[in-house]
């Protein structure tokens, strides 16, 4: 298992630049969010809606960032290798709704385990974008076994406290 | 305990086990072919029992029968794969192998939902066997996949937009597995992929100095 940390653009500024709805405290970011020139260049991973449904079913809440009044555009699932939806976690979430974070990561783990079932590797990649106490934005990339996706929970909490 | 008054769970187990006993290459072809008939009969009974459960709106029973149906289908396809290989039908053998894999995966998903039927360990082991069979018995394949953006997709259970309905892909609802149906796609590219989403999308022939060669059988066609 490995994790990598890097700086990430201001999530709210990017959403505004791209003309997307501003993310709530817990949100699914589209693919290409950090780098796309326009909102035409962004779409979600195929499991974004499924992840949201699992989270809501477990008692959590999460938004899917998209253009206002726009349908959800997703990538065609091209390969069997699973790409996790990128999760955005605002500082307030960990303080106000810590359970939502746990529910989200458990739902991701469920999808990840299901996705690798017929693959020769049990490794998955999951990215989290975290807003720190100081207002910075960091991206945490996890690569490792699907069964250990929830191991990053404490690392995310530490990042938020930074 | 779900009451299967009009279907015998023991009977299903017997059919499944007898079929699996013949799921090997060296098993006699005539025995495998006669077992197919028995398995298909059992699947018909399952379908009828599931239909009754659906009419009675008994979702637990419908889903239990679905998991049995999917498991038995996987076994059927696996047997058909071996028969195809022996009858020199390489292309069909591949299709049956992949269908066996997909049925097994669906059976595992549904089984995890159905309360009281135990773990899916045997199905998971069967899936491992099928994946190993793919690598050992069949020649390496060249797979294709499309890339693009899905602008609209429907839920197979309710027919409405999947992204806003309540159904979850891979779950069973009244005896039916939920999946998404892509209804509007912007196609961007087609590419070769090593690990495809769909193993049935593959290169079947190529041209060499001898002619148009079938990639599975190696015959010139």
Task: Count interface residues per chain for the largest interface.
Answer: A-B, 23 and 32 residues
Assign the structural class of chain B, choosing from mainly alpha, mainly beta, alpha/beta, alpha+beta, or little secondary structure.
Answer: alpha+beta
Q: Tally of extended strands of chain B? A: 6
**Would you list the SSEs of chain A in sequence order as H and E?**
EHEHEEEHHEEH
Count of DSSP-assigned helices of chain B: 5
Give unreliable regions of chain B as ranges. Answer: none
| Strand neighbour order, sheet with most strands of chain A | 1-7-6-5-2-3
Task: Give the termini distance of chain B in whole angstroms.
Answer: 55 Å
Return residue spans of chain A where pLDDT drops below 50 for at least 5 consecutive residues. Answer: none
Indicate the overall shape of chain B. Answer: flat
SSE pattern of chain B, N- to C-terminal: HHHHHEEEEEE
Helix content of chain A: 25-40%
Q: Major sheet of chain A: size, sense and barrel closure?
A: 6 strands, mixed
Number of helices of chain A: 5
Query: Rg of chain B from C-alpha positions?
Result: 20 Å
The pLDDT mean of chain B sits at: 93
Q: Which structural class fits the helix and strand makeup of chain A?
A: alpha/beta
Helix content of chain B: 40-55%
Give a short account of the largest sheet of chain B.
2 strands, antiparallel
Chain-averaged pLDDT of chain A: 91
